[in-house]
Amino acid sequence: MTLAAAAAALLPLAAACGSEQADGGSTSADAGKTPVTGVHWKVDSVTVDGTTHRAPERAHLRIDAGGRAEGNLGCNRFTARAAVDGGHLRLSDATATEMACDDIPLAVEEALSRTLTAGPLTTGADGERLTLTTPGGDTVRLSRQRDAPLYGTKWTVTEPGGGSGRAHLTFDDAKNSVSGHLGCNSARAEATVHDGHITLGAPVTTRMMCEDSLMDTEKRILKLFEGPLSYRIDQQTLTLTSENGQTVRAVADR
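== Lipoprotein ==
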């Protein structure tokens, strides 16, 4: 589903959700002060036609140096091609999932998706904050998000698995354990963390069978339990790497 189509589907429901009037202020800054790419930007608010909507907790945007954007509208995840040229950003070929969340105002997702795909966006970045402005004057305001903690965070696996969201892991400091879902089966194991490394014990799992793609994802994740791992947290992304080079990446979903 394209991001524009997602916005169109949500449009009839926008009037039913609450909002607040914008204060008319602006945050224009030199985009050169802060890099737009390589940063996990948390969406704080979106302003359309003078009305400001507070963004859901999960709403975010990240753009890598290779021209790929990914993020969350609040309920639905999205990906897009991203072109950063001087003080402008353009998102294209955007697609989004088609989930419904009872606790997420549909008006916010609609407003955010339309604004992000409204053509070239002027970037105003200064220190910890970024403002994206459409040619018509609508804005998305974002702030830099710091590294998520290893413990207590629900890490949703994006690789392998193609970002389906089915596989996830959570590390528990008090219990020295990791638990979660591998794609098809639930699992739990001991987890010892020391100096950038994690040693996992033998996993205890359920014994269900699922479609081939989910089982393939699960088999790749299970390889992490075969020896010590190195781990790295870059803002909201966790990378686990085994001694033989097997890599699993996950994003924070607290």
